Amino acid sequence: MLEGCPSPNGPPFAGRLQLRDEASLNVMIPMGGSNEAFREAGYTSPKPLIKIVGRPMLLHLLDNLKLRLGDVVWLVMPAALHLQYEPQLNLKNEYPAVDIRVILFSVMTRGVVETLFIGLQHMSPADLTRRVLCLDCDTIYFSDVLGDFRAQPAGKGVCFYFKDTGTAALYSYLRVEDGTRVEEVSEKKAISDMANVGAYGFPSGQLLREAIATVLDAPQGIAMEYFISNIINKLLSGGHVFDALMADQYANCGTPAELEAFIEHVSSGKVPSLMIKRRFCFALDNVLVTEPTKPHDYSTCVPIEKNVQLVRELKEAGHHIIISTSRLMRETGGNVGVVIATCGHETLRMLEQFKIPYDEIHFGQPFAHVYVDASVACASGVDTAKDLGWRVNSTPQLEPGMVAARHFNNVQLEGDYVVKTASRCAWRRRGPDECRASHPPATAPPAADGGGDLTTPGSPIADGVSSLTLQRIKGVTFSHLITNRCLTPGRLKVFLSTLRKVHSSAGAASAMLPLDELDMGANYLPKVRKRFETYRPLYLSLSKRSDDLFRMLEAYLAEYEAEKRFQYAHVVHGDPVFSNVLLTDKGHIFLLDMRGEVGSKLTLQGDLTYDLSKVYQSLLGYDYIILNQPLLERDAELLEELRDTFRSFIAENYPQVLMSDVVKLTASHYFGIVPLHQNPEHQAAYLRTASALLSSIPKRESARSSPRPLPRVPPLSPVEPS
């Protein structure tokens, strides 16, 4: 409900900026938790979409909020849920005057606080200054929690509670002093009878975001840390004040038992605010009555009692009942007049006999074997294709959290294992013991074939191709973290520290090559030159400036090699882009797909600046390209914050590395990967980014000059190659 709205038919968000003031609230409703209990109870829709009297639970929640102009509602939900159920929610038509912002994510978050963090990352600096009220998506609030929070002094948080008289500690509980001042929040431990109702107010979005970031950045997280109660305790320990406010008018629908008890309450007419009269349309045949036991003799139909009773109760509650039937439509060729003349009287007599009430009856529904309707097929929790028993031809779907392998690699999931097939997997044999902790373990000690490649026993090898079976690690790639705005500076530092350990490794002495046999420049100019010469027509089709761009890169890389600015390390990763970095549920970093090759030599030795430039490649938006995600202004701002973190880490931990070298090598990567990807839009984006990076380098810069910040280049800068 929106208070103070002049007309529900006016412009959707008219005047919202002018009316937004310090009393305006950010109302955040995170979604995405487990639905297992409801599935086991027979519900097929996600919990917020389960219907109560024909209307999704989430809409009932929104209906009962006392919103005012200037408030913003943030619905933070999985992208898959929104894609499937958006027509059912129909938010623009349901709430034309409410500023509702739907924030989508495609990662499995580790708890409600990470889901909230994603929503907060979408807020502007102005949004973050305003207060935030977080609401559980499975609770309907009849108490005016917005009004009560709005009335609190600025700078104070709130916890809304009810008196829990049960014997089991099912909620989080408050310990208070002086009647209202919160001293502690305890999860699933009844330290008082004041149980949280799932509504929490915070003094500002910025404060909440900072508090959550400290939890997400912790290297080893446990499940309890991702509850809102933990965030409030952190803020309490930092001197922030929270008051406990009573909100005893609510409906908790968090478990099947609680939902069914509430629906029973609603059905008995005890919740007037939910008893808006609605129109329900039921098919007659095979829904309310069976098929006739004698063909075409409708007097032999029998009622389907559970559905008939549902119709009776809905009608008794004042709802409008419509019955439709396709009887005899196929036999009469769709002649409705003949249908009514033939079976109309018998049908009406049957409805009276079985005491099936109705307001309208429609003969002449077209005959079909399957009916698809937005309120039925798409509301079942299984997509329409599955409801129909049909396979839609489409691009193969990846497991959540996976990034598609490039065309020269093949990655398959086999239960708890991952099988990678590629030209070489030599790093596994040559990797030193101290680096193995940051890599998924092989299922058996890998054996080398005659060419020095690695396989697990029994792996097929042909034409220099090897396969390697690794333990499957449950986690999320940095690619998905960054594109979901969930990569914090702290998480980036954890990854960079892991990479620093790799670079500090002494390596395996038995696998070391003499330095005079190691061509440190082999992965730079020779590789880029070969690709450009081989695919020059492709480059020129993307940009007429490609020759000029190559000449610039050629000069930079030749100078880099001639002056031997390589930063030698016994062990380098070789390709630490974010798709090769995995964050586990416990906050551990795993590095995937080490290259183990310099030129044609199998070795883990190399130039650590190469690794750093690959990280910088991702910090310039590479993952948005490969995942086909739009890079918006807010994404560019967050990437710049992460690049600042990266530059500071390099200055502190790699003082010998010049950022100008990192930028030049990154430009060469973007230029060189153009022909490795088959999507023309991706190819053009790589070339634009390479051009933007090269344009940012001062023409007369001395490589030996002290490091200085380069001009900030937005990722995928709209530099149009002429």
Automatic annotation (TrEMBL):
Domain of life according to the entry: Eukaryota
Bias (Pro residues): 708-722
InterPro entries cross-referenced by the UniProt entry: HAD-like_sf, HAD_sf, Kinase-like_dom_sf, NTP_transferase_dom, Nucleotide-diphossugar_trans
Domain Nucleotidyl transferase residues, every copy: 31-251
Protein name in the entry: Nucleotidyl transferase domain-containing protein
Spans annotated as Disordered: 431-458, 698-722
Species the sequence originates in: Prymnesium parvum
